[in-house]
Every structure is written in C-alpha cells, then in structure tokens.
Amino acid sequence: MSVLQQVPRNALVWLIISMFALLIPHLERIPFWVIALYILSATWRFMVHRGRWSFPARSMRLVLVVLSFAGIYFSYGSFLALESTVALLLTAYALKLLELVRRQDAYVLLFLGYFVCTTEFLFSQDLLIVLYSLLNVLLITTALVALHQPAQQVFHFGSLRYAGIMLLQAFPLMLVLFFLFPRIEPLWTVPIKSHAARTGVSDFMRPGDISRLSQSDEVAFRVQFDGEIPPPAELYWRGLVFSRLQDGAWSSIPSYAIPAQERAAPRLETKGEALRYTVLMRPTQQPWLYSLRYARSSDAAVIESADFRLYSSVDLEDQYRYQVNSWPQTVLDQDLSAWRRRSELQLPDDSNPRSRRLAQQMRSNSASDAEFVAEVLAMFRQQPFVYTLQPPLLGEQPMDDFLFNSRRGFCEHYAYAFTLMMRAAGIPARVVAGYQGGEVNPLNRTVIVHQFDAHAWAEVWLEGEGWRRVDPTAAVSPDRIELGLEQAMAAEGSFLSDSPLSPLRYRSISWLNSLRLRYDAMSYRWQSWVVGFDSERQFSLLESVMGRLTAQKFIAVFVGSGLLVLLPTAWLLLRKRRVSATDPIDQLYLSCCQALSAKGLERFSGEAPADFAQRAAQALPHAAEAIESMTKVYSGWVYGPRAEGAESEALRQMRLARTDLIRALSTRSRAAAAPSEAPQG
Amino acid sequence: MQLQSVIDRTVSEIGRVVLGKELQIRLALCCLFARGHLLLEDLPGMGKTTLSHALADVLGLSYQRVQFTSDLLPADILGVSVYDRNEASFTFHPGPIFTQLLLADEINRATPRTQSALLEAMAERQVTIEGQTRKLPEPFFVIATQNPIHQSGTYPLPESQLDRFLMRLQLGYPTPQAEREMLLRQSLDGSLGEALKRCISEQELNQIRQAIAAIHVSDSLLDYLQRLVAYSRESAEFAVGLSPRAALALLNCARAWALMSDRGHVVPEDLQMVLPAVAAHRVVPSADYAGDGMALVLQMQRNVDVIRR
Q: Do B309 and A579 make contact, defined as CB atoms within 8 angstroms?
C-alpha cells in the first residue's frame, strides 16, 4: 500500500474520538455490549496502526457481524423498531472501523458518521442535543481535515481549528437552507415511534395511575399567555373527561357509543373576558390537547368535543403548538340531555356498596344537591384523610376500602370516591383528568407544566349552574392546589424520590433554579421557533416577506440568498489566496502570473521568475518577448542592485511591461479565434 | 567580462576528460571559488578521481592524494617530527596535507580519529602539531570522496563533520553519448590520455574571489533564503534543519554561481541551482519521512514560494 493510501495517524485518532462522541447520546438506548464492541474495535484498530496486531480475517469479521445481528435481535426482540435499527447502524459503524485500511474507507466511515449524527434527532430535538450534535459535526469534520494531511502527521489540535473555520464559513448557508429549503413531505412513512412509550395521562384511569406519573419530571407542555397569568389555583388543564366506570377503571365514552346528535360540541354563549394563550405540547403519541375551561381554538386541526375538551385529529408524533381562547366563567351545559344525564349517572351494579349507602344516606340528610357536595367535601376535610404519593393497595371494593379503611390516597382516589358518591346520590358527575398548576418561568412569562403536575378532579352538574368543577383533593390538601405538589409532599419527602438528580429537586438553590429557568426559557424559544418551524410557518414567513409566493419567485429568492451568503465567503477565501504581497512590484508580478495562469500556465510555488519565464515563453511563443521583458524588469529590480529613488521608475516600467504582456496574450487569443470563425462566415 | 571567459574555458577544459558532466563540473568549480571543500559521493568508477585530478590541473595547484584505509593514522596525513642525528634536533616532515589540493580518497574507510584530524585541518586551514601551529598553503582545498555509506567496513561521517563540506556532489552515470565517446577515446594505459592545461592563474583565482564577494544580494533574495531555512526548521519532515552555517554556505555558493553565470546579482535560480548540492547532506529527514535528504530538499524547494506573499 502506498504512503498516499495510508490513513494518517492524526485522522485515525480524530475518527475514533468522533465515533465515541457519536455513541454517547445513544447510551441510554443501547445494550451494554455495543459499548464493549466500540471499545474492542477502537483498540483493535489502534493496535493495527501500531503494527502490533493485524486486521481481522474475513471469517472473524463474518463472525462479528453475525454475533452483532444476533445480539441486536436478542436485546430488542425485533429489527424493525426504531431503537433496534439505530443500534444496528451503530454496531455496523463500529465494525466498519475494523475494515478501515485505506483512505477511501475512512471517507465511507466519516460520511456515515454524519448520518449517524442525525439519527439522534429521531429521539430528541432538545437544544442541548442539537448543541452536542454540532460538536459531533465539528469532530467528524476535523477527522475529515486530518485525512488530508500527510500520512506521518501525528495527532494535533490544529485540525480542530481548521474544521471550526470551515463550519463557521458554512453557517450562513445553513441558515439559508433552514429558512428556505422546501420541507418536503417524506415519500414513504416509517412507523417511527411504534415502540416508544406513550407518555402523559392515559385514556383510562385506575387508582394509582396518576401517582405513578407524578414521579416524572419531564415537561408535559408549555403555555404562553398573552396577558396576565391566572393564579396557579385556577390552572386546571382539562385533557380527558371520564364518564364511564367499568371494571374498576374510569374511561371516556368511546365515540361509537355516543348517539349522533350528542357528538357535536354545542356552541356556548361565552361569559366574561377571554384568556388567550398558546400551548406547545411535547409529543405524547396521543390525540388529546390540554386547555382551561371552555376553550375554543382557531386552529383548524383542533377539534372540540361535546364534553368541552379539545383534541387533535391525529396522534401527536411531534411537538404540537396550538392557540386557544378560554372563557372560564362560561356556563357549561345549562340543560342536560336525557342520554347525557343517564350516562353521567351510571354505576356498575354491585360495586362499593358501603360507599353508595353512605352517599344515599348523606343526601337524604341534606337539603339540596349543592349542600350535599359541600358535606362530602367537609367529610374529606374533617375525617383523617391523608394526601399521599404512596397510597396503599386497595381491595376488591376499592372505594369502600379507601373511604372506610385506608383513607390514604392521591388525587385520583379522591376524584373517584367523590364522583362515585355523587352518582350514587343521583347527581350527574364525572372525573376530569389533566394537569393542575404549573411553574411560571419569570424570564419569558411561560407556564411550564410537568408530568408531576398531572391531576384528576371531578365535575358535578347542578341544576341552574351547569357543570361545576369540584376538586376533592383541595379539601384534603389545599397546599397541592395553592403551592403545587412539591410543597404538598414536603413532609412526606416523596416528591420525585425516584429521580435524585432531577434539577427540579434543587429548586431551593436559587442560582441553580434561575439557571434551570433560563434554560427552560431558551428551550421554549428553541422548540417553538426552530423545531416548530414547519412548512406552514415557512410559507407564512415567505409570504409575509414577499407577498404571493410563486415558483419563480421562490427559486429566485432561494438561489439569490444562497449566492448572497456564499459570495462574501468566496470573496474572503479568494482574497486570501490571491495577492497578499506587501511590495507593490511583487503584486504587479503576481498579477502578471495570474494573467498567464488564465492561459493555463500556473507558476509553481518553488519556481523562480526566470525559470517560469522560460517555460512560459516556450508554451506561448507569440508572447515570449513580453514575458521575458516583464521578467527582466521584475528580476532586475527585485534582485539587482537598486539606485536611490528609482522605485517609481521601476514600478512604471513594470506597469508598462504588464500592459504589454496582457496585450500580447490577448492578441493571440484573437488570432487563435479568427481561423475558427472563418469557416462559419 | 574577462573572468567569464576564463571560467568558461576552465569548464570546457575539464569537460575534455570528464565527459557530459558540465553541471557537476560547474558546481565543483563553484564550490572551490566559494572557498569550500567538496565531498564527492558515488560508487567506485564513476570518475571521482578523474574530476578531482582535472580540477587540480586546470587550477595549477599542487596536488596530493591520500588513500584512506582503516589503519591510516593522523600522523600519516599531518606529518611527523623525526630526530635528526646530525643536527641533534627534531625536524618536521610535513605530511601530504601540506598541499593546495588534497584528494582524500574513500574518506569513510578511515577511523573517526583520522577523519577528525583531517576535518579539523579543513576548518581551521592550519595544523597544530607538537604545540606548533603551521599554516596550510593558500589556497587550500580538500576534495574527499566516499562510497555510499551502506558498504561494509566503513565509518560514516557524522553530521557535524559533513557540515564542513560546502557541497556534496554525486556524479551519476554518464549519458550514453558521453560513455560512447569515452569508450572510443580510451587508450591502452587506461587514461584518457590528455594532459590538461592550466587555465586559471593564482592572480585570476584571487580576482574571481574578490568578484564573488562583490556580487549584489538583494533583500528579496535574503528573504527567500531565510524562508527556505525557516521551512527546514519548522516542517515536521525534518529531524535536523539547516544551520546558520548552512545558510551562509548557500549564500556564498549562490554568489559564486551568479558570477559564473555572468551576473552582477544573485537571483533565486542561482540559489536553487546550488541548493541540492549544498543542503542535501546537511539535513536529516525525520524517521517517518520516506525519502532521503535530497528528496527532502527538493520537496522544500517546491514548497517554499520564491515570491513573498
């Protein structure tokens, strides 16, 4: 193998560094043995470089490939899910290192590296991940730069600087492509997230579901209000309405079970002032959207339901942003249809007999429905009920067990028990699930709603008042509603007890908290303006800038702005390559050389003027005289003895010589062009 | 110019016995004009001795030849004091070094002790024996020859001593025409049969040396020279770059070459002509570099731009 074909040591080191850097963000998704494989490949290749080991034999490589495939299959149980495909790619990437013999292999590996870099975005488009990917791109580019250095080049950091300059030069073009390149719909769709866990509130609720969710510090969604942010106690984000109790779980009534005339959302008369806000949802793989009470959205893709929820026509595979107007004081369902009344009263026949008896007994002792509601809440408040993240398991009749035995529960227990008692007493009631409260980021005035803000409460229908929101949790633990989960659980110490490193646990450290909020504000901006910059926004941006969008206009703008950012870079590069000689006579000489190089005669860097003149004169005999006299003037001035004050004269002569040279060169081109024209004429 | 015709005549005179090697002849003359010692490195039978002999003839210099062997001692070159019974005192019998042109044949066959005795004398142009310093004649040239050092039984010259030779020349095989001519003219006794005329008088040699000292060197040329030297010191391919002495040697040779090209000032071509002969034996390529010193110097010449940017 020739020296030219060798992979420089510098490139090899950078290549291995970049491979490991590419692996790091995937660490939580890949089995341990993939990391071991990376270390093995890197060690092996490095020992080959040092001449200690030799490349693995063909049979050995085959064994490694088969083992990797088998390993992926056993670790993930499938080849088709996203995680396993990416793991397969990463494994192949590591094994390819063992086939890195020549320079062209290194190219394959590096370009594959750029591709591997993008796979990280399938899982997360977080700001930090993007910054980290930029670092990866820098590392891969550094390896690419190092690949063009002499084979014996030892490891050094200079290549990093060079690659950085190259990336900076590419930055304006990246912006142009980001803003202008058409976001083409994929030609085929891959069921990308089929195996990803669904996060957030699910479409049915059993006691214990929401307390499990409360262990997560992930962001569920962020909200930006146009005006004043309402107090946290008012922020009940409705997501799901559970009207059906079956097999111990609350669920929504499936749409096929709803009669046609009940499906349409009634257009209610709004009351009071509207709250205007924008919600930026994280991908949930579920269709429902969160909003405050009585919400309407101007977004066409957002659908309103008869129980006053919002949902999207498709599952949220990506982050989703929608605009909402809410009128919290609006009366919901002044009159209740017979079907709705029936379904909001339904209870399984044989469940929780003690609780139902208690409810009927209490109702008969109270004067009105409203009074009964207050009495039930008073019961929760006065009897020793405990609000806890660690409720005990409940028996066959869960609510009987809860109300009379354990009396320890999370919000879903209270909502369940309350709704059960209402229905038992003949008052239409239902459970509402969603989030309550949220953290206000003072830096950008957004409300950050985390998974641990998940909450369940109840709605009862009262004659003349419509649906009234009742939160039995507020009766048990007012702190939960006023101050949030963390304060409510302060005594128990169970807040995020499963994630000791979550920055949210350290909110009491003020600088850490302000750093976290600052990052969240940045993240919000990033998610809504960069990640959320889809083809629709792109179109509206372009139309707002240049009016009606036509194909010609678009192409002109696209090409034009591409040129606009590339030309300054090109100009800078060319200027650096061109004359930077300080001496004016050197400049003149170099410009003559340029004129000659336009004729295909490039002066080599080590070629002295007279040698070059001789070569040029032979190649261009018609201009020989001009070339020689120019060189003579130059060489005589630069290397010969100088008379005092003769510089201006030398410059003048040099200019004349250059003019002569250019004239001589152009005469020839005209003379050469003439014969070819003649036959045509 | 009168000196010019003298030089041209000298070159053609030597060319009568060393056929087809005009460039090497000119470089050898250039080396002597620049008051330097010459190292001829080539395989046996390439005309090293013929060239040095011819140089001695045309310059009209007294000539001594020492065949270096592994048992040669310093005294064999420098000379020795012998007790004279008649005079009852020691008298000094000068060695072969007391001559104007010394041909040290196969210098790398001698032991380092003998080599360094010669090389010291070359540098100082004087010899100190038994506490007495004796001047060597003026002019004093050494032409050393050596076989390529990978032959067995040799003591390669260390870099520090190679540096004392102004130039190292390789003659190389002759062209087919030159070889044909040589074969035709070959006489039975093995010589080319021509006695060479003396072409340069001592006075003319002095004039030439004065003229060389007067050759103009411009700032731009010094810049170029310094860029070359700096490149050899900075590039990773060099283990040992060019020393200040090497830079001085380059300049002197370029001056001599400019004079021989009938020019009053040095141009980059002059420097480039003498560069391989002057620099190649002074640099050491790094362990990773695939080529030898000559390849390295040629690469340096290609990479360093003549014109400052």
A: yes
Shared-domain flag, residues A65 and A110: yes
Contact B268 A639 (CB under 8 A): yes
* Whole-angstrom Cα Rg for chain A: 37
Residues from chain A that touch B303, judged by Cβ atoms under 8 A, are 605-606
Q: Which residues of B touch A607 (CB under 8 A)?
A: 306
**DSSP bridge pairs for B103:** B65, B143
B248 lies in which domain range?
A: 215-303
Q: Are residues A400 and A481 in the same domain?
A: yes
Q: What are the start-end ranges of the E strands in B100-193?
A: 101-105, 126-129, 132-135, 141-146, 165-169
**A345: closest CA among A262, A253, A263, A256?**
A253
A518: in domain: no
List of chain A residues whose C-beta atoms are within 8 Å of the C-beta of residue B265: 639-641
pLDDT tens-place string over residues A578-609: 555 567 888 888 888 888 888 888 888 888 88
- A117 counts as catalytic: no
Check whether residue B144 and residue B107 sit in a common domain: yes
CA pair distance A146, A142, nearest whole angstrom: 6
Tokens coding A669: 């081109």
Query: Which of B215, B306, B308 to mutate: most A Cβ within 10 Å?
Result: B306
Boundary of a domain, candidates B199, B223, B248: B199
The single residue of A209, A471, A520, A593 carrying the catalytic annotation is A471
Measured between beta carbons, which residues in chain B are less than 8 angstroms from residue A3? 290
Distance between A220 CA and the closest CA of chain B, angstroms: 57
Is residue A250 within 8 A of residue A416, CB to CB? The reply is yes
Q: Which of A579, A581, A641 sits opposite B216 (nearest CB)?
A: A641
Closest-CA residue of chain B to A589 = B307
Q: How many domains does chain B have?
A: 2
Q: Are A176 and A216 part of one and the same domain? A: no
What angle do helix axes A584-597 and A609-619 make, rounded to 10 degrees? 30
Please count the structural domains in chain A: 4
A525 in a structural domain = no
Residue B224 belongs to a domain with what CATH number?
1.10.8.80
Q: CB count, 10 Å around CB of A419?
A: 30
Range of the domain at A146: 3-180
User: Is A156 labeled as catalytic in the residue annotation?
Assistant: no
First to last CA, chain A: 57
Instruction: Check whether residue A593 and residue A563 sit in a common domain.
Output: no
A471 is catalytic: yes
Question: Are A474 and A554 in a shared domain?
Answer: no
- B195 and B226 assigned to the same domain: no
**Binary contact (A152, B236; C-beta < 8 A):** yes
Residues B90 and B185 in one domain: yes
Residue A503: its pLDDT value, please? 67
pLDDT tens-place string over residues B27-66: 999 998 998 899 988 887 888 888 888 888 888 888 888 8
Q: What is the ipTM of this complex?
A: 0.82
